[in-house]
Design goal:
The complex is a heterodimer of chains A (612) and B (127).
Chain A: H1 3-28, H2 32-56, H3 64-88, H4 93-112, H5 119-146, H6 149-177, H7 183-205, H8 209-227, H9 236-251, E1 255-262, E2 267-272, E3 275-279, H10 286-293, E4 297-299, H11 302-305, H12 310-315, E5 320-328, E6 331-340, H13 347-418, H14 426-454, E7 462-465, H15 466-477, E8 484-488, E9 493-496, H16 498-514, E10 522-529, E11 532-538, H17 546-549, H18 573-583, E12 587-592, E13 598-605, H19 608-611
Parallel strand pairs in A: 8-10
Antiparallel strand pairs in A: 1-2, 1-6, 2-3, 4-5, 5-6, 7-9, 10-11, 11-13, 12-13
Chain B: E1 7-10, H1 14-26, E2 31-34, H2 37-46, E3 51-54, H3 63-72, E4 79-83, H4 88-94, E5 99-102, H5 107-123
Parallel strand pairs in B: 1-2, 1-3, 3-4, 4-5
Amino acid sequence: MTADELIQYLSWAIYVVIFVNVTVNAFRRPLPANIDIALYFTAFAVVIALTVITRIGSVPATDPLLGAILISFVLSLAYLLVRLVEDFSKVPRWIKLLSEVSLVVLIISAFVYSPPRPTWLSLLMILHLVGFLIYTIVAFLRESKRSSGVTKRRMAAVAAGSIFLCVDFIVAGFGVALPEEYTTTIQAITDTLGLASAISYYFGFVTPSLLRRAWQEPELRAFLGRAASLPRLPNTTAIIEEMQRGAANAVGAPNARIGLWDDDKKVLRFSLDEVETELAPAMNLTTGRAFLTQKATFTPDIARDNPLYADAAKANNATAILAAPITAGEKRLGVLIAYAPHAPIFADEDLALVQLLADQAAVILESRALIDEAARVRAHEEVALLKDDFLSAAAHDLKTPLTTLVAHTQLLERRALRTPDAPVDLASIQKLGKEVQRLRTLVMELLEAASAEQGKLIGKKEETYIVALAQEICARHHSARHPCLVEAQEPVVGQYDPIRIFQLVENLVENAVKYSPDGGDVRIKLWHDTGCNHLTVTDSGIGISREDLKHVFERFHRGSNVDDRRFAGMGLGLFICRGIAEQHGGTISATSAPGQGSTFHVELPADALREL
Amino acid sequence: MTDGRPILVVDDDPDILSTISDILEFEGYPVEKARNGEEGLKVIDRIRPWLVLLDMRMPVLNGWDFARILKEREINLPILVITAAQDAQRWAQEIGAEGFVAKPFDLADLLFAIERQKGIQGTGPLN
């Protein structure tokens, strides 16, 4: 056996293997594409069989009938490839017609003209083969570019096989015209090209699973690369949208959708551009079938499968639909569907990929559910903790005036019983009145916190002179231990609720005094700039840690360096301050460091009238 | 007996401080007042009370530190914790106080607790 022969036998063997595989597949899944692939390789098998017959010598190679039959099958190869292209894309009618007419005319000519055939006929035959092969090669390459995953690489392999075959035909065709001494060289070239074509087709049509996995990897990897970050997106809709985009890219489909199973309503819920659609899963729909049978499935032609959806399919430029269930263990979460503009030529590959992506989607959705659950538990704990904090703070603050009220009332009662004729104890009554006021203030604070929460703090607005207001507050809280100073170069005026602004400033000053246990100045600074009134209250007290600063205006928040055994309070004061500032259209902020005092800065929109 | 020695009341809230003092004085107990632990210690340096009514949450020197300093100075005084906290009992145990009265209290409860301390003191080894 020569090297040439070895190469030739090897190519034949490969072609036979492909033929057997694709034929079995066509019987198993009689889709148009599978049938056309089987026909293409049947033609190859016949050509090989006829060649073998001449080799063995049962029929002489020069037999005109055998030669004509052989030529017919070779010519049919180009036509069959055109048919295959038509299965996954649009072939212009004239090209299809031309391929059919050309095939018939050339076959008849092959039988009419016995060898040696006229040169023009041989040229026409080569032109037929090469012309249509080039057309299909372009179609395969285009499809490869459009597809992704295994399909993309399989298409490229098919295109490569066809390129080798095409060159093979060209070399063989023109080789005939060359002098005898070139025959061996030509033979060696055509045999090598034949082997290359066979191997390419083998990879394209009978892809080994190892290669299949390798080819699938880039798309899966791209999808998985983003997968880890997906569960942390702000909401499920955002996750779904990202997964839909990722799945569409991975499958190479223009559109992919995820339907989530709503167990209460028993429907699959799709959301597209903020429009929700519900779909009750039914066996006559691909989506429903995938969900109900829990198996990946596809429909090559939506319009034919369910005429109701024909228009919708057309509008989405979709002919075929692939669907796979999204399931985590026993839990049915939904369905992933991918729309394709034409029936998938390698449907199993695409289905396998869609299923893999659906499995990943299940993992992502489950992770999200766990994150949500953890957040719910955490929020629940925080609320419980907040309630505890609030209760103990409120209890302490409310109990103090209550203690005086209860004890002093009982004292008055005792006195009255023992000395009924004693004069009215005015001082005690005033004291009781003061305690009732104090209690009222605390209860009001609680109610105001609720109002602040609801944005209903501000009452009637009027022209408010903040400097005067600050001076009054300062005078009230001034002491030798805590000297209070107001700095202002100009009147600062605005349309505000004066009662609330007073409360806001007084609260800040009270805090400044309260949290400066070792004494120290309390400074209030006021100024005005374009469109804005500013007020700062600065103390030299215990300060606020960086961590606490973030939460200082939150309800019930108390500084971690605030010893609640020394400083009673509900942690509502600054929360109400923020409410007052914000509900005036302003802001409040704080700068501080532990042990270095604090500055609270209030910014309020300036009086509109004043601006004029 | 108490030998005419006063009761020391330590509370940062001036209203509560004066109310308790009024009650005790009305019932015939001499009283010394302090607005925080530090002031309380100063009183003790000057005159030894037979009983301390102690608030816990106070600025400058709180009830815990006050009790600790007394122990350090080996001054053995019976203490009744008077506090608004739900943990009044636990806090009283923490500082080794004789008892506690939770705010807001009934006059009768406060006086009963004081009477009881007087009784214990009266029959105690001191006498």
